[in-house]
Amino acid sequence: MIQVKEGADVDIGANASAEEASEELEDGVSIVNNVVYSFRLQSTNFDKKGYTSYVKGYLKKLKETLKITDAEEVKKFEAEMKEEVMKIIKNFGDYEFYIGEGMDPEATIMLLNYREDGVTPYFTVFKRAVKTTKV
What we know:
- Helices cover 33% and strands 18% of the residues.
- With 135 residues, the protein is of the alpha+beta class.
- A four-stranded antiparallel sheet has the order 3-4-5-6, with no helix packed on it. It has a two-stranded antiparallel ribbon with strand order 1-2.
- Helix 2 packs antiparallel against helix 3 (74-90).
- This is Translationally-controlled tumor protein homolog.
- One of its GO terms (cellular component) is cytoplasm.
């Protein structure tokens, strides 16, 4: 999480709980997820049925690509993805969904969740959906 200075002061009318100690921030500063902010990810919504439909189609495309690039890994890929998708569906309500700024329907959806402390965020991204680039 990082602090970001906003361009304008906006009062949204929220009252801090009297029971909670609020963290004091400068006017116009908000705390945001650094990955979401830096990569300009856009929040998107799914219900369980919609996500299941999306992920089936997306994984089918990844599998077809894998058949061409690394056919020996297809069986392993199928087993791993089945297990991972079942975990995601089981805990569906815990995730927030993000897509790139261009909202490309062919792009992968990144899943944001939080560690057991409820504060530490982490993303789930399918490894085969990421292309490595030498910088």
